[in-house]
Write a structure and sequence with these properties.
Blueprint (H helix, E strand, L loop, with lengths): L6 H15 L5 H9 L3 H28 L5 H33 L4
Helix pairs in contact: 1-3, 3-4
Length: 108
């Protein structure tokens, strides 16, 4: 999970989520998908948005350095948005791991 701090790690994780989403599903999972979006689709959409914000930030940085972009304020706003999105993704990951560990440590 430490690989989620890089863009490539997030992309690899997103690919893994997609393969899990296309694997065999039970009847209950099929019903939940038919009635609405599943958790994996929400998570995949969130990672897609994060990748888009990161790519926009990278392109804006390149444009600022090369002189194609002259508005530093807008570039800083988009950088802050990307940073906040990444921090949110890391916190969601931490909460998911914490919940997983809590379930794993339950005694029946």
């Amino acid at each position: 999970m430490d690989g989620l701090l890089t863009t490539q790690g997030l992309t690899d994780y997103q690919s893994a989520l997609r393969t899990l989403g296309t694997s065999s599903t039970t009847d209950q999972e099929t019903n939940s998908v038919a009635s609405g979006n599943s958790f994996s689709s929400y998570l995949t959409d969130a990672v897609d948005q994060l990748n888009q914000k990161t790519a926009t930030m990278n392109q804006d940085t390149v444009n600022l350095i090369t002189g194609d972009e002259s508005d530093l304020g807008n570039v800083m706003i988009r950088m802050t948005e990307a940073q906040l999105a990444l921090q949110t993704a890391v916190q969601v990951r931490n909460k998911c791991l914490e919940a997983y560990n809590d379930v794993k440590n339950m005694q029946f």
